[in-house]
Amino acid sequence: MKKHFVAASIGFSLLSGCYYDNVEDLYGTTPCDASAVTWSADIQPMMQAQCVSCHSGASASAGLDLSTYTQVKASVSALTGRMNKAVGDPLLMPPSGKLSSCSLTKMDAWVAAGAPQN
Q1: What are the b/e assignments for 67-100, b being 16+ CB within 10 Å?
Q2: Eight-class DSSP state of 99
Q3: Is residue 80 within 8 Å of residue 106, measured between CB atoms?
Q4: Do residues 65 and 56 make contact, with C-beta atoms less than 8 angstroms apart?
Q5: Where are the domains of the chain?
Q6: 17, 19, 23, 47: most buried, per Cβ within 10 A?
Q7: pLDDT tens digits for 80-116?
């Protein structure tokens, strides 16, 4: 009986130690903080991950190079328009599918702040 109690106690201790109290587990999503969006931390990485593979260099798709801050800022109104198209619209960018709502919110917040190079 004592062996069963010890084994059960150890098993319970191991299982109860596996619970993680984090926002994603509790609410299913990560909150989107767009209060302090910056070029270097938010927008540039998004451009690198989603746009630059097609829009850079001498053979940039549609002749639009988005590899630098200056080029992104010069095209920002066209970019946000294309990023906010409806799913299924052939003009939606990126063509792989709509960006997350958090990415779009951050882009909108950055543009609203004047698209600073920060």
Answers
A1: bebebbbeeeeebeebbeeeeeeeebbeeeebbe
A2: P
A3: no
A4: yes
A5: 2-112
A6: 47
A7: 999 999 999 999 999 999 999 999 999 999 999 999 9
